[in-house]
Protein: Gfo/Idh/MocA family oxidoreductase
Amino acid sequence: MDRTDATEDSGSDSPPAPPALGIGMIGYAFMGAAHSQGWRTVSRVFDLPLRPVLAAIAGRDPLAVRAAARRHGWAAAETDWRALIARDDVHLVDICAPGDLHAEIAVAALAAGKHVLCEKPLANTVAEAEAMCAAAARARREGRIAMVGFNYRRVPAVAHARRLIAEGRLGALRHLRFTYLQDWLVDPGAPLTWRLQREHAGSGALGDLGAHIVDLAQYLSGERLTGVSALAETFVTERPLLAAATGGGRGIPSGGLGPVTVDDAALFNGRLASGALASFEATRMASGRKNALRFEINGERGSLAFDLERLNELSFHDHTEPAASSGFRRILVTEADHPYLQAWWPPGHALGYEHTFTHQARDLIEAIARGTAPEPGFEDGLQVQRVLAAVEESARGNAVYIPVPQG
Amino acid sequence: MDRTDATEDSGSDSPPAPPALGIGMIGYAFMGAAHSQGWRTVSRVFDLPLRPVLAAIAGRDPLAVRAAARRHGWAAAETDWRALIARDDVHLVDICAPGDLHAEIAVAALAAGKHVLCEKPLANTVAEAEAMCAAAARARREGRIAMVGFNYRRVPAVAHARRLIAEGRLGALRHLRFTYLQDWLVDPGAPLTWRLQREHAGSGALGDLGAHIVDLAQYLSGERLTGVSALAETFVTERPLLAAATGGGRGIPSGGLGPVTVDDAALFNGRLASGALASFEATRMASGRKNALRFEINGERGSLAFDLERLNELSFHDHTEPAASSGFRRILVTEADHPYLQAWWPPGHALGYEHTFTHQARDLIEAIARGTAPEPGFEDGLQVQRVLAAVEESARGNAVYIPVPQG
Amino acid sequence: MDRTDATEDSGSDSPPAPPALGIGMIGYAFMGAAHSQGWRTVSRVFDLPLRPVLAAIAGRDPLAVRAAARRHGWAAAETDWRALIARDDVHLVDICAPGDLHAEIAVAALAAGKHVLCEKPLANTVAEAEAMCAAAARARREGRIAMVGFNYRRVPAVAHARRLIAEGRLGALRHLRFTYLQDWLVDPGAPLTWRLQREHAGSGALGDLGAHIVDLAQYLSGERLTGVSALAETFVTERPLLAAATGGGRGIPSGGLGPVTVDDAALFNGRLASGALASFEATRMASGRKNALRFEINGERGSLAFDLERLNELSFHDHTEPAASSGFRRILVTEADHPYLQAWWPPGHALGYEHTFTHQARDLIEAIARGTAPEPGFEDGLQVQRVLAAVEESARGNAVYIPVPQG
Amino acid sequence: MDRTDATEDSGSDSPPAPPALGIGMIGYAFMGAAHSQGWRTVSRVFDLPLRPVLAAIAGRDPLAVRAAARRHGWAAAETDWRALIARDDVHLVDICAPGDLHAEIAVAALAAGKHVLCEKPLANTVAEAEAMCAAAARARREGRIAMVGFNYRRVPAVAHARRLIAEGRLGALRHLRFTYLQDWLVDPGAPLTWRLQREHAGSGALGDLGAHIVDLAQYLSGERLTGVSALAETFVTERPLLAAATGGGRGIPSGGLGPVTVDDAALFNGRLASGALASFEATRMASGRKNALRFEINGERGSLAFDLERLNELSFHDHTEPAASSGFRRILVTEADHPYLQAWWPPGHALGYEHTFTHQARDLIEAIARGTAPEPGFEDGLQVQRVLAAVEESARGNAVYIPVPQG
Structure:
């Protein structure tokens, strides 16, 4: 044999190709690009029970959505998300639209019998999130899966941290310390995009960054936050208006100023169900910090530390070792028996940010094929939303302690 | 000339020796050893207007205090601190006794016309601290100096950080983030020493560790905290009793358990006068962290970060540089033009913990010789005490926001 | 408009799709997977003048090559590399086969009018490399491009380092210090794969790892090595034979032992044309180091440091700053104006190892479209080969200094 | 009892004071200050069998030596080192003079029945070092101790590293990698002090910095170097002359230039007796590196890494752990069961550079009291000297491999 068409699988020597899973994605800005990379790559790297097909992408601007489809490899483009949901070749709806659209789209997609992946935060309000959870529960009974996109759970070092905690390597937890620090709003001349407007974004650093660290705290500990006390601040209260706001924060300044209606920073402390103390800080005003999602967790038997700016590393201190030879060790989380790593490169060859979306796609496809509950499901997203709402209520009450409803 | 007595300064070629300043120290445990090292070393390294003489040390146990005097180089030993204060050869009283004795000793020493250096925290209560401040103000009018021993201001990297902030290199401050993490109480079998008893220690991690970071936040920012919201926790509520408590936490377990009456950890957020947000955590339960006094300060024009476990280093980010070449730089604070460094070793030759006491001694001697106000004075200690009291009140009220009285 | 086929570009509102560039790849082990990821991704991220099409892949084992084609997205599979070269839909031949095949394939591909990308090291001998260079020079006159795959030049931090040096930010260079440390041969039970056999691999750590750091030293400095002195060592001289050697080092032990005929480690010092001193270490026996390609370069005006295990970071010291505020700064090389980063994610969102192949694909496609000389061209690969040969000769002569022929 | 003279030990409750050991020190520049601090402090921190007394200091300039005596606490000053040796109250001669005086002073002091501590490098030539060893051997038979001052063996982290290697935690050693990088000669305007003149300093970076790392390599491995291959370079061949050279490199430029007759940098590779490979770099031209004595040692079972700029830390990788949880751990070498630490502060409280001299003083006093061989003895210093001589011979022969005589 000299030549063969590799896409033909008719030969008796080939395993049959797995069934297709048609993906329909709504939104094509930053998250759309990242999700596309995940969907395109996942079956090249992992052995999967279903084969994702990039069926269609939806966006309001016809030219832009077609350009995005070509760029990212989607077979078709839609300008109405309802049309995308209605397509027979779409089995899973991936929601990368702004937060104020999440609930409506997700409920409609689930009602139409689609699986759903929804970007975080799940919604802009607890009420919306509750409606989404109810829809997800109904759909679940018919075998549909609804996952929320807390992609940082899929950093191998974070997943490995969860594994170590679940194995009891930290013992009873005492302290959790989370920050998510960025600096793209330090400049008072940064424009007033939709992310700075409450009606579109719901909140500021809190929903954008704080949602991630609240989810990670609950995921890593295996516990829920029971109450919080918060301070929030908007340091720059007016910013340049854009003539026409565009998705990625780009646009032409109009010459005027408009009010910033979300928080620049939120600082909150809380308690986990076990009594452990947890602290959180989300800000876009920490000069020099670009993507510093950091945590440290201290338990009776050990500690863990992580920094997203060095995402291939996990620091682990084993408190059961003799003091003379103990210390925080830097685990390079690139070994074949680390989470997700079997499929990738040899030890020491780093992964990047976008791999989290590939891993998320894998986990979701596995859950769909097996019919198991996805992690994190919409109820996890709802619980995060309840924490964020409690944080906002506490901040309005100048740090008054607000219990988090336990659903 | 072949031989000369180096201690004779009668020759016309020698500058006259500076006048003596007799030091009397009360207490001889950990802090006593560290202060002794500072007093012994300071005139060997710095050119000083006064020559400190280790005149006398006081402690209750006659054998122990004499042994301490011999070990640390004190000329005499006293078993009654009042006798020490009464000595003519003592011009400065250095208080290293437990916190519940600070007020009585300091007020008596100042009344007796002595200068005073008092270990931190200034006192166990705001009322005590106010009485001490009043005494210090009276004594100040007669040329006596009263300083509180927040020695970490004297880490060269910390002093350099203050200099950079004072020069405006950070611009308007947005965030201050302080932790002081230790782990010597992680083991539930650690004994119930005086440091775990409210009547002696006043508070737990809060007064022991939190006092340092509250002082540093106010020192570095040049601002005061205006209010706080706090959570506190005692994770291990009973610990082994000692048959006879001894100074250093050593002793023989008695077989029984007694109640821990102070906090293991305190977590609090607050606001500075300028509106900057500040977070604080003090704990002795952070497994693997030995002496992790860490801070990061973010301003409009730059940021600083520090970790006491790497005390010769300061991280500085200059936000006014082009993004492509900016980043946190690790300044090795061992250059001749860094604070205190002119007197020490060549660049790159590290200093240690105890040097802070040598530097403190220098600054105090300079203040006495010049008659200038010491930094930090008792009023700074009082202001820290007010913050600690507000933290305790807030923690009792489950994080209710407590304004800090501004004195 | 509600629905559109995104792959149709006939509408008047769309720019025409760029012309196709058919890629044919030979080899499908580790490098094949990495290159495939690069070819698949490059046009999704960068705006390119040519559109790479994964036309065909070649490998000897029919089942394996077809599986690889399906896995990695190649349209066709060949079992004879000559057949791949002969295909009309292949315009560029990407050589990922073992080093002993490079010369024959590359010469044939260039003679057939194809562009060539050849994995490093260029060849197993200088003579082979010279023949390849001659073929590349002939092909160049007919507009064909030949590039050697030193992919680490395409780490953004490395490319940024080159930019800083080229701008003169380091001044005259004094020292270059390169190590490439791995540890997968520490275990004496690791099997005897083709990489440990001189007839296939040419050399051991020297060619595998040393080739990268020699290339980087010459690339970053913009200078050539003029001579070297080397020590080499094989610490484990016999290893378990495999019943049947397979590409990736996997296979079934046969029960016997066979001789290791390449170096485990090579250590060499040399001089650059300018007189700067350079040191190199390549080893696969450095326990705990997984992929530690590290360098530090010291010049009269500044220094740079890098570690491939933290590939998103570059350390830079500017010696022209005042000593009190200078230090190595950690530049997070994820800003839009860093090399290659305009196309990727927001600041602080890390890239990984495989991105180097995407960047390599971009640079090669740009060179083909523009008809410009590729960097690094085969002559760069030949010069590295000359250094490796001099290193081997020096090691055989127990560190005797060997001048490197300057081509 | 109210008052007691602490220096009186006549009471029946006090242990008798240990006998005095009179110290006489020659030289009072940088090393003199550091040694003085060690002698003054050692009995305040450690329980010692002999009590060091700072009896006399010698230097040529009468005014300067008397000032140094007063500053550093020496009871008497001498302007002739022979007079110092002749003093009855001097039992130990501490040689901090330049290297060209070491041999004459040490031989005379040993002949006069004194113990000797000699700063490194032991001498400027192998012949001098051999004479010193012979004198030390004779004196040893009469109970006199001769130690060479490789003070970095006394960094607790380094001593702990030696302990781990001696316990077999690294297994068979494969690689040793040592650098000692400083940058105080980067500026071509730095003056021509005695340290840059062969007749006084013997060599440049090689003897000053290289001697330390050669000693540490042999100390840590417990093996000797058997041969070396070296390159050396003087990048700046002429520097400003000083009108009158002074000890510390200070002085007034004369306006002229003079030749630098020592190396700026030396780069050498070698083999240990076991076959392990070792690399060394000593330079004073590494911009941004202030005191970067760094090593990494890789063995079959683990690795160690250290940086003198972070001298309280030791990195340790245990290769026998499961790959998924292994990594270099940062041991904070401040625990009570680390070398020398029992006597110092609580965990996490850093030591500094000067502590190495206090530890050296302790170890020497213990050796004298016990009559045991000191480590490192003069024979260790001689062996280092032989390596340095082989390095210089190799560098003159353009990297020709020179076996090191094994004494």
